[in-house]
Amino acid sequence: MKTLKTVRIRSLKLTTRKYKKISYVLTCFKESVNFLIEKCVENAYFQKVSKKGTSYFDYSSYPKIRKSFYFEWKSLFPQLHTHYCHSSARITKDILKSWNTWCFKKRRCLDNPAYKRNSMKLERCLCHLKGNYIVLVIEPRRKLYIPFQPSNHYNLLKTENHGEITLKINPNRTVDIFIPFITEVKIKEWKSLTSIDINERSIDLITLYPTTSEITRIDTSNISTTHYTYSLKRKTIANRIDNGVKYQPLTRKQLLSKYGKIERNKTKNDLHEIANKVNKIINKHASLVIMEDLTNIRQINSRQKNLKKWQQRKSKNIRRRLNRWNFKQFQQYLDYKATSTGHLVEYQNPRNTSKKCLKCGKLTPCKTQIFVCKHCGFTINRQIQAPINIAKKYLTNRLKNFNKHKNVASPVPAEMQLMKIMLGELREFKEHIIRDASHYDELYHSISILST
Ligand SMILES: [Zn+2]
Q1: If I label 131, which of 30, 180, 344, 417 is the partner at 20 to 30 A Cα–Cα?
Q2: What is the rounded CA–CA span in Å between residue 83 and residue 125?
Q3: Of 127, 145, 122, which is closest to residue 11 (Cα–Cα)?
Q4: How far is the CA of 369 from the centre of ligand 1 (A)?
Q5: pLDDT at 443
C-alpha cells in the first residue's frame, strides 16, 4: 500500500533575478488556469443541465480539457513549456469539481470561479528534486535552480519517490516548497478488531481479541469547550464593532481571523494527541480499524429553507454545536497514522447503530445519554452500545457479501475464520454487558478503562 507524507521546507533567500523569473512564471500560470476555467464555463460541450434546471459540468477527466483547448493555449502562452498546460488543466478540473458540488448544495448557479492562490502545483517533469536543489523547468532546456537547507524532518521522511511539488511564493524573496514523498508500506496481518464511535465529548472504542474484549473511553470535552469559548469571544467582537465603538485598533475582519486561527491551532493540537493515544492501542494489539462513514451528516442537520424557527428539525444552538464538531479531521489524522504503520482502516455506515437495542435488536429513538428500550425495557449508556453495533454490522456485512463485495478485496479463508471467531466473541461480550448493564453504567462514569 502506498502512503503520502508531505514535507514543507523554505528555500534560501533568492537573488532578485531568480525571484523575478519565478514570480513571472507564477503570473503566467495563474492566467493560464483562469483562461482554461473561462473556456470551460463558456463551452457548451462541458456544460450540462440537470432535471431541476441547475447547470453542472462534465469534469470527469483533465485530458478532455487539455485536448480541446491545447492549441488556443499554446498560441496565448508560447513562452511556457507544454507541460504547464497539463498542470493547469488538472487544477481547473479540481476547481470546477468543487464549484460544482457547491452549486448542487446551494441549489443555484454560483458566480464563475477564479484561481487566486499564490502557489502552483507542477508535474514531475517540470519540477523535481536534485540534491539540495529544486529544479524548475520554464522552457525546454532552460532550468532554474532553487536552493534550500534540508531540515531534520525532511531527512527523516525523505524517500526516492516523490509526487507533484507545490511552490508558494513569499513576499520576502523566499519560496515555500511542499514535497509529497511516497512510501511503500507492508500491510500487517490483523489479530484483533477495534471499532471507534466518535461523539461530541468523547471517543469510545471497543477492542476485540479472540479470547477477551475491552471498552475504552477517551475524554475529548476540552475540544468542545474551546470551540464554545472562542465562539463567545468572536460573538462579543462582532457585537462591539457593530455598535460603533469609536476607537478600533484592528479591523473586525483581522480580529476575527486572529481568534479563528488560535482556535484552529488549539483543536489541531488536541486532536493529534488523541489520535496518537488511539494509535498506540491499535499498534499494541495489531488490530483492524473500523470507523463510521459520516459523509453528508452536515446536510441532515442543516437549516431548512422557507421554514420558520419553530418548524426547523434542530434548534439554532444545536446546529451550531454540531457543525463545530470536527470528526472528519480526527478520522483523517487517525487514518494516516494507522496506515503509515501498516494497519488497515475500513469505514462502515453508522445508520441506526445507537438506536438498536442490544438485547432484542429492535429500534427505539433515543434523545438522551441513556438508552431505554421501548420493547423490552433494557437500559444502558448509549455510548457503550454504538461501537458494539458498528463492529457487529461490519462483521456480518463482510461475511454475507463474501463474493459480492467489489471495493474491498474478498477475505482469504484464514481471515474468514478469524472473522467468525470475532463474531462469536462479540456475542459473548454482548451477553456479558446485558447481564450487568447497571454495573457497566456506573463504571463508565467513574473509570475510563475497563476490561472483561
Ligand atoms: Zn430491547
Answers
A1: 30
A2: 8
A3: 145
A4: 16
A5: 58
- How far away, in angstroms, is 375 Cα from ligand 1 center? 5
Q: From CA 448, how far away is CA 276, in angstroms rounded?
A: 17
CA distance 145 to 161: 20
pLDDT exceeds cutoff 70 at 355: yes
In the structure grid, which three cell numbers stand for residue 139, read together?
522552457
Q: What is the pLDDT of residue 440?
A: 66
| Cα 181 to Cα 4: distance, rounded to the nearest angstrom | 6
Res 398 pLDDT > 60: yes
Confidence of residue 86 (pLDDT cuts 50, 70, 90): very high
Phi, psi of 317 (to 5 degrees): -65, -45
User: How many angstroms does the Cα of residue 370 sit away from the middle of ligand 1?
Assistant: 13
| Number of CB atoms found within 10 A of residue 424's CB | 11
Rg, the chain, Cα only: 27
Residue 446 has pLDDT above 50, yes or no: no
Rounded to the nearest whole angstrom, what is the distance from the C-alpha of residue 382 to the centroid of ligand 1?
Answer: 13
358 CA → ligand 1 middle, Å:
7
pLDDT tier at 142 (50, 70, 90 boundaries)?
confident
For Cα atoms 60, 65, 66, give the angle at the middle one, nearest 5 degrees. Answer: 130
Which residue do the cell numbers 514535497 mark? Answer: 179
Pairing of strands 175-184, 213-219: unpaired
> Sign of torsion, CA 308 313 316 317?
positive
